[in-house]
Amino acid sequence: MYLFRSTPRARRVVVLFLALLLLALFLLPAQTRRVLQQVSQPLAWLVSFPLEGFAATRQRGTDLWEGYIALQDVRQDNGRLRRELELLRGQNTALREAAASAQRLEGLLAFKTRSNFESVAGHVIARNATNWYRALVLDVGDRDGVKPEMGVVTAAGVVGRVVKTTPHTSIVLMITDPNNAVTGLIQRTRDEGLVEGTAKGQSRIKYLPLLSTVREGDAVVTSGLTGGFPRGLAIGVITQINKAEGELFQSAEVVPEVDFAKLDEVLVIASVHALQEEAGVAQSHTPAGKGSGR
Fold first, then answer.
1. What is the C-alpha to C-alpha distance for residues 119 and 155, in angstroms, rounded to an integer?
2. Residue 262, Ramachandran bin (φ over 0: left; ψ between -120 and 50: alpha; else beta)
3. Are 185 and 221 in contact (CB under 8 A)?
4. pLDDT tens-place string over residues 36-84
5. Which 3-state string (H, E, C) describes the chain?
6. pTM passes above 0.90
7. CA-to-CA separations, 133 to 161, 206, 208, 241, 281, in angstroms, rounded
8. Is the Cβ–Cβ distance between 208 and 186 less than 8 Å?
9. Domain residue spans in the chain?
10. How many CB atoms lie within 10 A of CB 245?
C-alpha cells in the first residue's frame, strides 16, 4: 500500500513525463508522425470498438429498464382502469334496474289510483310453474291485511288468487293453474263463462252459450260475480273457439294478458273481500231487525 501512495513529488514527475512525451511528438519529423498516425488509427479503432459496444449495450439496457418500469406503470394503470370500468358497469346496471323498477311502480301506482278498490302492493319473491301447480310467492301476508281468496292483479290484468298466507308471505295461484277458476265475460258479446287454467299453462273459458257469436280476438274480462275481483279487469284474448257436436256449451282458448314470467310487482285486492264480508253481515242481521220492528 505504501508503494501506491500518491505524493506531490510523484505527481510532478508524471506531469513532467507527459509534457516531455508530447514535446517529443511535436519535435519528431513529419515522416515519423505520419507513421505514428497510421499505427494509431487501427489501434484507436480496436480500442474504440469494445468501448462503443459497451456503450450501446449499456444504452440498450437502460432503455429496456426504462421500458420495463413504464410497462409496469401501464399495467397498474390498466388494472385500475379495469376495476373502475367494472364498478361503473355495476353502477350502470343498478341504475338501469332502479329506473325500470321505478317505471313499473309508477305504472302500478297510476293503475291503483284510478281503480275503485283498495289494494296492497307486493313483490314477487318466488315462483313455481311445475306440472303440479303454477303459483307465485309474495312478500306480503297476514300482517299486511292479505287473506285467502283475495284477487291479485297488475296494470295488465288478472294474475290469480291468494290461496294461503303466513304473517309475512302469501301464495298466489295463477289463472293458468287448472285448480283456479274465475268468472269471465266476453267484452263484446257480454256472454259469461268460467275461466280456468289448462295443463299447458294457458287458460280457457268454458260454458259459453252455443248461440254466442264469440270469435278469435275477443277480449275476456272479469264479470265481478265471484269474490276477489271487481268487474271489468282484463283476463286475456280468445285465440281459438272449440265447439263440439252434441255439446250444450262451447269453449274458447284464452291467452292471458299478463306475462307471468316477468312479474315483479302486483296488487292484492282487499276492498272486494271486505265488501262481501259486510254484505254477509248485513244479510245475517236483516231478519232480526225486521222481527224487532214488528
1. 13
2. alpha
3. yes
4. 556 556 655 665 656 666 667 777 777 777 776 777 777 777 878 888 8
5. CCCCCCCHHHHHHHHHHHHHHHHHHHHCCHHHHHHHHHHHHHHHHHHHHHHHHHHHHHHHHHHHHHHHHHHHHHHHHHHHHHHHHHHHHHHHHHHHHHHHHHHHHHHHHHHHHHCCCCEEEEEEEEEEECCCCEEEEECCCHHHCCCCCCEEECCCCEEEEEEEECCCCEEEEECCCCCCEEEEEECCCCCEEEEEECCCCCEEEEEEECCCCCCCCCEEEECCCCCCCCCCCEEEEEEEEECCCCCCEEEEEEEECCCHHHCCEEEEECHHHHHHHHHHHHHHHHHHHHHHHC
6. no
7. 13, 20, 26, 25, 34
8. yes
9. 10-114, 119-276
10. 4
The three cell numbers locating residue 256:
292471458
- Fold classified for 119-276: Thrombin, subunit H (2.40.10)
Contact 249, 171 (CB under 8 A): no
pLDDT at 274 over 50: no
Return the amino acid letter for 122: G
C-alpha 108/C-alpha 41 separation (Å) is: 97
| Residue from 143, 151, 150 nearest 169 by CA | 143
